[in-house]
Amino acid sequence: MLNAGFNNFVNEDRILAFADYRKRTAPITRAIHEAEDVGKVIDFTCGHKTNTVIFLDTGHIVLSFKL
């Protein structure tokens, strides 16, 4: 299990990719908006700025403050 911050964990076997969201590239932002439309965004930031976006094999996208 990978600690994604604030006592939230992600199964390492499910992770496809990490992306640095501090750069805010258009493809990453677009992927987040598309996942929000279908309810597949998991927000682990607890109100902080998103630093890392984690893409899972289930189609979910995890927003993390820590990584």
Describe the fold and architecture:
The strands form two sheets. The chain has a four-stranded mixed β-sheet, covered by helices on one side. The protein has a two-stranded antiparallel sheet with strand order 1-2. The protein has 67 residues and is an alpha+beta fold. The model has no long low-confidence stretch (mean pLDDT 93). The protein contains one helix and six strands. Helices cover 18% and strands 37% of the residues.
Topology:
Elements: E1 2-5, E2 8-10, E3 15-20, H1 26-37, E4 41-43, E5 52-56, E6 61-64
Parallel strand pairs: 4-6
Antiparallel strand pairs: 1-2, 3-5, 5-6
Fill in the keyword field for this structure:
67 residues; alpha+beta; four-stranded mixed β-sheet; two-stranded antiparallel sheet; 6 strands; 18% helix
In short:
This protein is α+β, with helices and mostly antiparallel strands. 18% of the residues lie in helices and 37% in strands. The protein has one helix at residues 26-37, and strands at 2-5, 8-10, 15-20, 41-43, 52-56, 61-64.
